[in-house]
Write a structure and sequence with these properties.
Elements: H1 2-42, H2 47-71, E1 79-82, H3 83-93, H4 95-100, E2 103-110, E3 115-118, H5 120-137, E4 142-150, E5 155-162, H6 169-172, H7 190-200, E6 204-210, E7 213-221
Parallel strand pairs: 2-4
Antiparallel strand pairs: 1-3, 4-5, 5-7, 6-7
Helix pairs in contact: 1-2, 2-7, 3-5, 5-7
Bound molecules: adenosine-5'-diphosphate and magnesium ion (MG).
Magnesium ion (MG) binds near residues 129, 132 and 133.
Keywords: ATP-binding, Kinase, Nucleotide-binding, Phosphoprotein, Sporulation, Transferase, Two-component regulatory system
GO biological process, one term: sporulation resulting in formation of a cellular spore
GO molecular function, one term: ATP binding
């Protein structure tokens, strides 16, 4: 039955996640252990060893921090909030990074009602993840547009648009998988976490991409 299929699909993602976490945490741990053993044998800690240890520990920390977001949806705090103020806060949060990468983030509100019911921190996290991806897709800088439209009487549509290199079809198929990344220092968790949060808000994500850039669509129910 359909219910059974849904359950087994969920189980599959959980299994994939567990394997991924084990892998992601074990690899840096193995490296740390090895360096600790060398340092023990040589009775000395050289600067290079400490650098490697620190970067491996940072890696574990990053993966676990991102994963913690996944466990949050159980204790979400939904409030009525004006989406425009969330977007403004996110833009100001990201402003230093944006300037550093020669990026300009522009907001465009094309609706008179954007009151939604959401967990503010989680929704901010969604915007931050998408904006980070856009920044990383434009190494030479460029614009990022955040546009809000009234989709129909019951929902709004948010577009996050970049002018990056876009996502080839064979990669596009895999971006929702946990730990799938094309970046050397990526975690591959951002897209999956965003999808998870938006689903918890009864919303939907869309993505369209071409060699001229990528557009993420977020559909959220309007609160009237
Ligand atoms: P990460 O950013 O750690 O790689 P994500 O889950 O956020 O993990 O993204 C997965 C992959 O999707 C990225 O590695 C990248 O290949 C692709 N991707 C996501 N957003 C964009 C974008 N705006 N432009 C180009 N590629 C993107
Ligand atoms: Mg990312």
């Amino acid at each position: 039955t359909e219910q059974f299929l849904l359950n087994s699909e969920k189980l599959n993602v959980a299994g994939q996640l567990a394997a991924g976490i084990a892998h992601e945490v074990r690899n840096p741990l193995t490296a740390i252990k090895g360096f600790l053993q060398i340092m023990d044998r040589e009775s000395i800690g050289s600067k290079m060893y400490f650098d490697v240890l620190l970067s491996e520990v940072n890696r574990i920390e990053l993966v676990l921090t991102e994963l913690l977001l996944l466990s949050k949806p159980q204790n979400t705090k939904h409030k009525f909030i004006n989406l425009e103020s969330i977007i403004e806060q996110v833009i100001s949060l990201m402003s230093t990074q944006a300037i550093l990468h020669n990026i300009e983030i522009k907001k465009e509100i094309n609706t008179d009602t954007c009151m939604i019911s959401c967990d503010e921190n989680q929704l901010k996290q969604v915007f931050i993840n998408f904006i980070k991806n856009s920044i990383e897709a434009m190494p030479n800088g460029g614009p990022i547009y955040i546009k809000v439209f009234k989709r129909d009487n019951d929902s709004i549509l948010i577009h996050i648009i970049d002018r990056g290199s876009g996502i080839p079809a064979e990669i596009l198929k895999r971006i929702w998988e946990p730990f799938f990344t094309t970046k050397e220092k990526g975690t591959g968790l951002g897209m999956m976490i965003c999808n998870n949060i938006i689903e918890n808000h009864n919303g939907k994500l869309q993505i369209s991409s071409s060699p001229n850039g990528t557009t993420i669509g977020i559909i959220l129910p309007l609160n009237k």
